[in-house]
UniProtKB/TrEMBL annotation:
PROSITE patterns: FERRITIN_LIKE (PS50905). Iron-storage protein. It is found in: Cytoplasm. This is Ferritin. It comes from Pelovirga terrestris. The lineage of its organism: Bacteria, Pseudomonadati, Thermodesulfobacteriota, Desulfuromonadia, Geobacterales. Gene3D superfamilies: 1.20.1260.10. It holds the Pfam family Ferritin.
Length: 170
């Protein structure tokens, strides 16, 4: 059983996960228009991951006998100065997500809700990967410092990323 406060907090996070997905879709559009298909692919995978995160939370709320309440959202930012700025904004956003997931975990711990803690642990671990990956790409983009050949190599590398849904047991 989930408390009303935990249900409301997870509902808010579902909303934020949807918003996160739209941020990444907007970033994908930026890269598509800039003829960087690999970076666009990377952002599309991020979009899919965020939608999956929202769906996992949606299912958890339903499985615990509670109701999901979907909300509207603001339009995401769409203009950037460079690929580096896009990934820096993505990292900043993931850091916000991490704080929100940690706050959910804190609430679950405070309420001694073990099922919610076990469920949220997957997201805690996921955020470590999200931030590390963004940091890695930012380091590469800084290393090439706008060099077109380096940018194209990074773009080709990011084109290799594929979406792998999380295991059903998670």
């Amino acid at each position: 059983m989930l408390s009303d406060s935990l249900v409301n907090a997870i509902n808010d996070q579902i909303q934020f996960e949807h918003y996160s997905a739209f941020i990444y879709k907007s970033m994908q559009a930026y890269f598509e228009s800039g003829d960087l298909p690999g970076m666009a692919n990377w952002m599309n995978i991020q979009f899919q991951e965020e939608m999956t995160h929202a769906e996992k939370m949606f299912d958890f709320i339903c499985e615990t006998g509670n109701r999901v309440v979907l909300q509207g959202m603001d339009s995401p930012h769409r203009d950037y100065a460079s690929p580096l700025e896009v990934f820096e904004v993505a990292l900043e956003h993931e850091q916000i997500v991490t704080k929100r997931i940690n706050a959910l975990m804190d609430l679950a711990q405070q309420e001694k809700n073990h099922a919610a803690q076990i469920f949220l642990q997957w997201f805690v671990t996921e955020q470590i990967e999200e931030e590390a990956t963004a940091n890695h790409i930012i380091a590469k983009l800084k290393r090439v410092q706008g060099d077109g050949r380096g940018l194209m190599m990074i773009d080709q590398e990011l084109a290799q990323r594929t979406y792998v849904p999380p295991a059903a047991a998670n």
